Amino acid sequence: MRPLIRRFCAVLTLCWLAACAAPFDPAEELTADIPTRAVVAGVPLIQQADFYCGPASIAMVMQWAGADVTQADIAALSFSPGARGTYLADMIGAARRQGQFAVELSTFDALLAEVSAGHPVIVFQNLGLGVAPVWHYGVVTGYDLQSDQIFLNSGERDQMVMPFDLFARTWRRGNQWGLVILPPDQLPATATEAAALSAAAALERVKVYDAAETAYQTGAGRWPESWLWQFGLGNVRYAMGDMRGAERALLAAGRLAPDIPEIGANLATVRAALAGKGS
């Protein structure tokens, strides 16, 4: 479809959705104590290439955080030409391969809490109908509960202002999928320890070891009584060849959880490596 016709059809669809959207009642949907209005400043608007709303959204968030990255860089890691788009899992994978803390969310509470904490959030919307979906990624950059509006960088125009009713309908059609992407020295405001630990371990799995090390240190700062962060830190330092650093982290894990056999086993492996080096 030619771009002008495609955008015209999208506008008609949005108008139809606005007319039939179920009312959004903040009193029913929101339980978190958040400000009435919040805006994340400085999120750049990137005019997306055709079908690149996913890569453009990640690039916007990463550039906001100071990264030197383009939508083409992200597309090379995530875009599926046959699907003419980017799958959700590939969005997460691309962010992590870029060394980012990537954590999903799925509630209005978490979405607005992250924005009020100063974090933009990537969302997945269906701007069409159930039988004729129009999938789209955008970046939520703010909201205003009094005026019943949510602000997005859409990738095709200047900042989009949507009524909450309309946004709620389109986001629900996308199964309320959201993604917070932050540098590894920062944690999403709403992340549970399990979600954050999973995100840190994912950085280790894709062998972005420097970012994984930072992520484990960040998690240990928020959850200092949890041995899992020091355990992960020891493992990633072992993978990096930093045996002394691995030993220190595993000893710290052992002090927190002396009865976990895996800590002792890994510490023995590290010490064997140190002995082999004559250290």
Automatic annotation (TrEMBL):
A Pfam match: Peptidase_C39_2
UniProtKB keywords: Signal
Superkingdom of source: Bacteria
UniProt-listed PROSITE patterns: PROKAR_LIPOPROTEIN
InterPro entries in the record: Peptidase_C39-like, Peptidase_C39_single_dom, TPR-like_helical_dom_sf
Listed CDD domains: Peptidase_C39A
Position of the signal peptide: 1-21
Domain Peptidase C39-like, residue spans: 42-153
The protein's name in its UniProt record: PA2778 family cysteine peptidase
